[in-house]
Fold this sequence. Notes:
alpha/beta; 9-stranded mixed beta sheet; 6-stranded antiparallel beta sheet; 22 strands; 29% helix; globular; binds manganese (II) ion
Amino acid sequence: MSDKTKGQMMKEELFYKKKNAFETKTQDELKAAKDYAVGYAEYLDASKTEREAVLASIELLEKAGYKAYNLGDKISAGDKLYLNNRGKGLFAIKVGTENIENGVRICAAHIDSPRLDLKQHPLFENDGFAYFKTHYYGGIRKYQWATIPLALHGVVLKANGETVNVRIGDEAGDPVLCITDLLPHLAKDQNQKPLGQAFTGEGLNVILGTSPYFEEDGKVTPSDEKVKLNIMIMLNEKYGITESDFISAELSIVPAQNTVDVGLDRWLLGAYGHDDRVCAYPALTGIIEAADSAKTCVVALADKEEVGSDGVAGMQSCLLFDIIDELAKNLGGNTNVVRMNSKCLSADVTACHDPNYPEVSEKRNAAILHCGIGMSKYTGSGGKGGTNDCPAEFVSFVRNLFDGEGVIWQTAELGKVDQGGGGTVAKYIANRNIDTVDVGVPVLSMHAPFELISKSDLYEAHRAFAAFCK
Ligand code: MN
Ligand code: MN
């Protein structure tokens, strides 16, 4: 006999109760979550730009037996393929044995993150300092980028077409770069400015060096721009580049900090670029784990989400749909029918309720830390503007899928209704007649140089994508 009253029992039966990993999982399952995070941290440290994420992802896929594929190659049931889109985007394709007209299971994440890109003429000297001028990429809060150690990552295509990879600031013993800020003693005027205006885009100049070039006789060069010259000579010696090569380069300033456990209990992972590699990595491990399933699955890792998903490597490009066309053509299906019956998880992060800033989230509908992967039926701003707003039928499908596999998940709304908002790639896929809903890991301090996520939420993301691909 239960001691509970009828009312108590009815409440248990009728009310929704959010699941928390610590209250739901065994100690072994919790350990599995912490263990899983180790591989993710390695992936993240190797992936500070979209180009680096492509390479780290290919390494994972090749270990799992995936082979390079080019558009137009023959595709057969059972193939495990990847398409490298110009080094900036990646598609993992697991060809199943069931009828292709049953549709494709798609997990779509992005591998670009907010950062400071170098301008095309970045190098200049001012009062004995050599600097790089930057143009920020994506939604950053500018003040967060001053007075932290920064690294330089990217590629330079030299005049002869040769590509040079640049990576300074992350290896032990490397120097780092930095943007300065005012001392509080002299910040009287700056302190009066609104936070969004205290730092300007043109003010985000990165220190490269402060010493002049010395001639062979040991004396400072008599030419002007002595410090810029010194830095340019150092870059030329290390990479063989000249100043004009910056024109055909993609160089980015990213935080020099690597991934690290946060908190004495080590349940949080702090790093640059969780958004959205914290969904890209579990999508990859999910499709790899579902190797034996009869379904055809695609993991799409796109560039340019943080600036609107345009361009050849963004999710608004037709490439994902060209791949679906190729699958249909090679496996004997009608591509329109394949898309109609395909299903997509738009795998992107969501905002985690932050007890330090409770005023911006509506707690009943916000994602809560350690309560699993978040599903956002809708995103958008100002009355769901620009949202995919997934039909209830597909929400029902995903809900039952996750519950059936014991995935810990929750609903997630980005913030209070009139507080702001955001979007994802979901609509670009749904617009092509593919059922799509947003799911992703809740993030604290999203878009900051150092973002936080829960290891248990990360692990549930892996379990969710594996269940979807199975
Ligand atoms: Mn994102
Ligand atoms: Mn973002």
